[in-house]
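**User:**
Make up any protein.

**Assistant:**
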Amino acid sequence: MNTRVPALLITGALLAATTACGAQSLDSGSSDAGTGAQPAAQVVLDQAPAEEKAADVINAITPDKDLAAKVPASVKSGGLKVVSSIGYPPMELWASDGKTAIGFDPALARAIARKLGVKYTLTDEEFNSQIPGVLTGRYDFVISSMTDNPERQAKITFVDYVQAGSGMLVKKGNPAGIAGPADLCGKTVSVVDNGSSLELAEKYDADCKSGGKQALTILKFAGDTEAMLQVSNGRAQATITDYVVAAYKAADPKVGVDAVTLEGTESPWGIGMKPDNTALIDSVKGALDSLIKSGEYGKLLAAWNLDKLAVQSAVVNGGK
């Protein structure tokens, strides 16, 4: 995950001019002339950036008026405040301008905001700051390739949006011969601190010790980019990460790494919210179910070549 401590606020363009600019209003513009009533304020929905692979899909999403009517008042007035860690492609990455977030997680957050008929902002925070930010109300939800597990469920409530497994990155050609967890005994492994990769590394370390083999040396880093760098510079023989990210990195010949699948590690990733914010949880679940039913969710996944991560419905706290 990204290590930036200063948060960079990425605000969707508020195209308040005309619909000719591509903006879409939740309010169709019904007139209250002659009634003495003030017309309802129009909500101009954000447009996805051109470099977003799913831009056409996102920009075609229209609000579900039944869902929009049930959105919490704070979200209606202030927009949906989202937090993520940018730098974890293909889930979250920067566009070429270095300041616009694209990838599947920002794409789905934008899609949910449009389905609910609200504006959208996304803040880049390092991974360990995200849950506290949600609990203090600074953010409405976190969507950051975050594994839904019982430990995190004790703090926040998840709406699960994909099912993903873990993998490893090793040097091109796999000179250390690492085909699975048993091959990590006596090796140095780099991971993101306080993430699911650390949990796996600690489990594999315990397995090595209980089997009478050498322990792992575990190097912890605040961000995924730093953890991956340790394989390239030879400090670590492997890094544990999510398989979708490993496969994305391995597909780039300039990186010089191979991806190794970690079988049996599949688990749900969730959109995390404050547990007592039940109206928002219901709204997000409803929006995701609507996107799944309409086929728009599947198109978002396909745009980022992530079809295998699809879930069939929005499940609350499905991680076990």
Residues 1-40 have pLDDT under 50 and may be disordered. Residues 278-294 form the longest helix (17 residues). The first strand starts at residue 8 and ends at 11. DSSP finds eleven helices and 14 strands in the chain.
